[in-house]
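So, can you check what follows?
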Amino acid sequence: MASEHPLERNLALELVRVTEAAALHAARWMGRGDKEAADQAAVDAMRTALRYVDMDGIVVIGEGEKDEAPMLYIGERVGTGRPPKVDVAVDPIDGTNLTAKGLPNAITVVAVAERGAMYYAPHIVYMNKIVVGPEAKGAIDINAPVRDNLFRVARFMERNVEDLTVCVLDRPRHEGLISEVREAGARIKLISDGDVAGAIMAALPGDSGVDVLMGIGGTPEAVLAASALKCLGGEMQCKLWPRSQAERERAVEAGNRDLDRVLCLDDLVASDDVFFAATGVTGGELLRSVHYRRDFAETYSIMMRSRSGTMRRFETHHHIGLKRDLPAGAAYVPD
């Protein structure tokens, strides 16, 4: 690290403005069946709003490589160019399908940490994950059987296994996992998309309705979730999950030889000063949806910082009528 505390200024509020901008534009496409249009609206708004954030940022988790993603691509510089130098992880919509279908828990997400802190594995797009909140920190072992993990989590949380709810992506690859969770006696919350939101719900204080997240999801989403978990004090363990032998061989050729290594929070985000912000697009257990009311809109957001352990929830009222009169491009910025 360049200094003891290189991120002296709290960037979290500026990042909330970014996620609000993306959510305001993406939510116009809620339930309209066009996930590409929803995602493009969020990307356009987020990229423009990021230009106003006072930071020298490089996108390390984004929409893909430059040739595949013309905006918010990996390696793109964002912010005003002023210090601090930071890594930026974005997901303009965690849950594009959820947005297109009008289903719960689609969110817009941005996380920031010191330059060089965020994990990047370009050749393997999936990870096996297990996530718990602060109450169960120290209970999990991704190499242990599902039953053992759930009984340990229950003991740490002073509950019965039957009281636990495990969040799992509804995918054919999880048929075995689902059977094991059921055999252990725990309840299951299946989600069609959005495992960043699922991981956050597992770690949030209070009753989010989720106690554990298990299963295979995106590698970029793991880094975003780890950023939030650093702020919430939860725990996460991951292992890279090659989809094929060819993908495994490409990763090894690129220098990623230890594919069985267990990755913890400090491996995914090697910083103790992380900022995280998210805004709801569609309503759910985590955040409420964007509401439009004539010339006004309402957004609901969460922002966090790991160094202070602070979590704030925001309800913001945006005067859309005034924003329509702003110069071109400025309308993407909520305030």
Notes: Residues 35-50 form the longest helix (16 residues). Residues 82 and 306 are 22 Å apart (CA to CA). The mean pLDDT is 90.
